[in-house]
Amino acid sequence: MKKLKFKNYVNISVVLKKWIVNSLVFSTCFIFLFSVLFYFLGKKYIKIENFIMLSIILTILIVTIGLYYLKSIIETVKEINNSAKAIATGNFSTKINKNHNDEIGELCDTINFMAKELNDAEKIKNDFISSISHELKTPLTAIKGWAETIQMDGSNDTKTINKGLKIIVRESERLSEMVEELLIFSRLKKGKTSSNLDKIDILAELGEAVYIFKEKARIENKTLSYNEPKMLSPILGDKNKIKQVFINVLDNSLKYTKQNNSINVSVKEEDFKIIINITDNGCGISKEHINKVKEKFYKADSQQRGSGIGLSIVDEIVKLHKGNFEIISEENFGTSAIISFPVLTN
User: Fold this and answer.
1) Of 245, 207, 209, which is closest to residue 321 (Cα–Cα)?
2) 116 within domain boundaries
3) What's the pLDDT score for residue 299?
4) Could you tell me if 152 and 252 lie in one domain?
């Protein structure tokens, strides 16, 4: 990574000289104006000695107040400069003390907000690296372990070999899915993904995704129901990406739904939109996490499998199709994922 270089752009002597000159100019103008008033109005009432003394006192007072104010600004700007350097080196916990309620104060608030956002992003990135390392290590350990077992097994036990091969295939597929998910997300964020937009029947893609997970739900002792309508208007979209949306949401629902619980899929057409509602009665999402679940690499439960980008991919694809993706959830009661796409109109 290229190292950022910061220069101290706060030239104190220049600022100080400028402020003194401005103060003296202001004082001179004030004295001139006061002199004119004195000449026309105050000659009879004010002695010249008192006038000169008052002018000197006012000049000193103006310069003193100006220097004091200037000093506070310079100290704040120095602190901002040092904080910017600290942030550039990766110290995102830096915070600037706000001493002004003007433009300088707004700048302090902006830099503090930026540092907080960078700190949060750094934490999410580190959590993701830790999570993905664990997710990759687990299937690799299983693949390596069973490969070594089959290789070293001198008895040629067919049952053991078949069991080991099934695990190797399953874990290899899991690795492949994870890598593919990361590649899809990377392409979507860079805007390099190609979309084959065409008139598609959304019921076909949704039905296929439900079919993929129905058997998995049965094996895990969960119920996946789908109330399929007879006909809906077509939409303009990429059928592979649309199917990926449903797969990711269903996979997420299944992941967080406990045994003997259910997932319900419904779809309707309303106000020139196709609205898909995937609802589960799983563990739900707390208020603390609900606004972050669509963020990349975010996982409310670090113990759960997955890369933490499944719902981020959903959000990106739905936006690409000018649709909307909303999550409504209540902790311990379940979650509803509501996806809508505009219908294709003439």
Assistant:
1) 245
2) no
3) 55
4) no
Domain count, the chain: 3
Q: Is residue 315 a part of any domain in this protein? A: yes
From residue 313, how far is each of 125, 186, 236, 240 by CA, in Å?
A: 17, 9, 19, 13
Average pLDDT, the chain: 76
Nearest Cα residue to 16 out of 68, 61, 80: 68
Q: How many whole angstroms separate alpha carbon 20 and alpha carbon 67?
A: 8
Whether the Cβ atoms of residue 303 and residue 256 lie closer than 8 Å to each other: no
Place of tokens 């094996």: 219
| In a shared domain, residues 49 and 166 | no
pTM: 0.54
Cα separation, 35 vs 42, in Å, equals 9
Most confident of 16-20, 215-219, 268-272: 268-272
How do beta strands 235-237 and 334-342 pair? Answer: unpaired
Range of the domain at 40: 12-91
Alpha helix ranges (H) inside the chain: 12-37, 48-88, 103-152, 158-190, 202-219, 239-255, 287-290, 310-320
pLDDT in tens, 39-90: 655 555 556 666 667 667 777 777 777 677 777 777 777 777 888 888 877 7
Reduced to 3 states, what is the DSSP secondary structure of residue 210?
helix
Centre a 10 Å sphere on the Cβ of residue 190 and count the other Cβ atoms it contains: 8
